[in-house]
Amino acid sequence: MAKSAVRVLITGASSGIGRALALAYAREGASLVLLGRDAERLEAAARACLAAGAGEAETHVADVRDREAMACIVQSAHEKRPIDILVANAGVATGLSPSQLLETPEAVRAMLKINVEGVFNTVEPAILSMCARKSGRIAIVGSMAGVRALPHSPAYCAAKACVHMWADSLRAQLAAHGVHVALIVPGYVKTPMSARTIVKTPLSARTLLKRSASAGVESWQPSAMSDEEAARIIKNGLDRRRNVIAFPRYMYWAMRLFSLLPAALVDGVMRQFPAEVPETPERENS
Fold first, then answer.
1. What pLDDT does 224 receive?
2. What are the residue ranges spanned by the domains of the chain?
3. CA-wise closest residue to 116 among 162, 169, 152
4. Beta strand residue intervals within 37-164, DSSP E
5. With the CA atoms of 200, 206, 207 and 212 taken in that order, what torsion angle do they form, in degrees rounded to the nearest 10?
6. Strand ranges (DSSP E) for the chain?
7. Minimal CA–CA distance to 185: which of 254, 116, 248?
8. CA distance linking residue 156 with residue 233, whole number of Å
9. CA 70 – CA 270 distance, rounded (Å)
């Protein structure tokens, strides 16, 4: 392994964006530290990365909710060789069906622990080490749902808005110490998680319908892209040290605009697109 090869730690690396991003760095000979909860899928991802050219692909079966375990993994990985890029990617979605009024409290709290505390648990152990050597990049994966609230995913939107604010604060605080923080704001990406979400369009927009991967249900996911394409955009943005890596750009600016318009107007439009976001199987005490 070449000494100059970048060292990258990625959570949620066994599937979706995390796996695709690991493969993108593997093709450049990166030293990878891959974290996930499914041992079999994680090992398969590591083998694929080694086959693609990774200098190494170290794996850790870990739950980002476990603060002590995450601190141990991140610090030991850094001691072995300093982490150049840390990607806090692990997350789960949860939401409401059109007939639901209230999300299951236990599912909501489990999602918050993964999507919020899990990000903190991943990033915090790396901050002091990166600042000490005045080098390093931190990437925090948010969502378009964190830019403007969606009625079908109240808790998920709240979680992503939280990490958006945290990323913005960290970026301002750590820049003086030579550490760059990037917020990643994806739209629809074709992953196992997004395939479970069904957003229906009004009859007047039938021409925009796509067929969902699940049971042929009509689903509208504008500008949905593959995880490979998402990984390419993210890697390019990180290479260029962009502060916000949002894609597709038109959706990001549309959501920013929606946040400035009268709430009643935007809420009325949102209600024209009924959605069904399956509840996460995670539970608070799991």
1. 86
2. 7-191+225-261
3. 162
4. 56-61, 85-88, 137-141
5. 40
6. 7-10, 31-36, 56-61, 85-88, 137-141, 180-186, 189-190, 198-199, 210-211, 218-219, 225-226, 244-247, 275-276
7. 248
8. 23
9. 38
Q: Residue 212 has what pLDDT?
A: 39
Tokens of 18: 């995390």
Q: Environment class of residue 271 by beta-carbon count within 10 Å: exposed (0-12), middle (13-18) or buried (19+)?
A: exposed
CATH of domain 7-191+225-261: 3.40.50.720
Is there a contact between 179 and 135 (Cβ–Cβ < 8 Å)? yes
Strand order in the sheet with 244-247: 56-61, 31-36, 7-10, 85-88, 137-141, 180-186, 244-247
Interval 80-136: pLDDT, tens? 999 999 999 999 999 987 788 899 999 999 999 999 999 999 999 999 999 999 999
pLDDT digits (tens, 9 = 90+) for 122-171: 999 999 999 999 999 999 999 999 999 988 899 999 999 999 999 999 99
Mean pLDDT of all residues in 69-86: 97
Residues taking part in catalysis: 156
Q: What is the pLDDT of residue 41?
A: 97
